[in-house]
Amino acid sequence: MATCLFRSPLAHRLQGFLETRPSRSRESSRPRALRLLDRFFLNELKPGQAVTLEVVARWVESHKHLAPGTRADRIGIMRQFCLYLSHFDPRTCIVCQHYLPHPRRHAPYIYSIKEVRHIMAAARKLGPPSRLRPWVVSTLIGLLYATGLRIGEALHLTLGDIDLRRRVIEVRKGKFGKSRYVPISHSTARHLGAYLRRRRKAGFSTTATAPVFLNRFGAQRTRPGFEPIFLQILRQLGLRGPKGQRGPRIHDLRHTFAVTRLLAWYRGGSHLGAKLPLLSTYLGHSSITGTEVYLHATAPLLERAGRRFHAYFAEPPAVRKAHPQ
Fold it and tell me: Which residues 6+ apart lie within 8 Å of 242 measured at CB?
């Protein structure tokens, strides 16, 4: 049995709860959340005391100042632990579902192709053309827009994951540990190939395991290092307000890809119900439900939908003329 991480009267139950969770959960933020719960129990409970409704209410009250998403996570961990604890102590209060706040999902920003071109052009001005940094940033932005990859997936790509001849990118162990192949267009392959030639001429490693997107030291570029640069470009172009204000994000490039693909299929007269599983697989989702989050009505899509509705259901002119006045 692993060393106990907790010190409260319920330390052994918290340890057991942690060890019964899937390994993926233990590798995430779950131990930290349970340590916060342990600290709370240390102040609230005496040995042999049950987790009552009053105790749960004080836990909920202590998180009122936090964002809805964080509150939902903290209250959710209490709810799961209480369900586990109730098997050993029937006095345990079962936390009702209505205690969980429902975080409001903010509408994503859908970039236009013109905006993406301006963003990439601004990225190429981040330094002299002789340096690789401007091309790293601009190519990464273009790849996210053209493929809908998650930022973490793109940053973890190695040279061996890219096959320009077949125009395929292999995403290894993406979200939830899933791997997949992502086909790319001729233009994306061409721009990616141009970047890789610049990268090679700059003298960086060309082994199969070397990262595609580098920092100045030749190591893999990280999200904390890339995100401030991206937001700086958006502010420079007037697409985002000052620090502290909400606005377009990196992840919105993934939303943009999904919506753009949907619009292209709609314009081509495709049956979207049959196409959604393809989009879901391409994006690396485990189900179509996960893909639906990325689909949003935009002005071009609504206009196209209106035209299609009119074409199918509008009354023909000949019929209108035949109607008596």
Answer: 235
pTM: 0.64
User: How distant is the alpha carbon of residue 210 from its chain centre?
Assistant: 24
Residue type, 205: S
**Tokens representing 36?**
């916060």
Range in 135-144, 229-238, 306-315 with the lowest mean pLDDT: 306-315
Residues 123 and 93 in one domain: no
Answer yes or no: do 225 and 133 share one domain.
yes
Structural domain contains residue 266: yes
Domain that holds residue 192: 113-236
In a domain, 194, yes or no: yes
Q: Could you give the CA distance from residue 122 to residue 7 in angstroms, rounded to a whole number?
A: 53
Query: How far apart (Å, rounded) are the C-alpha atoms in residues 173 and 27?
Result: 15
**142 lies in the same domain as 203:** yes
Which residues are known to be catalytic? 150, 175, 251, 254, 285, 294
Residues 52 and 19 in one domain: yes
pLDDT digits (tens, 9 = 90+) for 76-125: 888 889 989 999 999 998 877 666 666 566 778 899 999 999 999 999 99
**Per mean pLDDT, which range of 22-26, 34-38, 73-77, 131-135 is the poorest?**
22-26
- The closest alpha carbon to 45, from 76, 14, 87, 83, belongs to 14
As a whole number of angstroms, the distance between CA 47 and CA 159 comes to 57
Domain count within the chain = 3
Cα–Cα distance, 309 to 236 (Å, whole number): 41
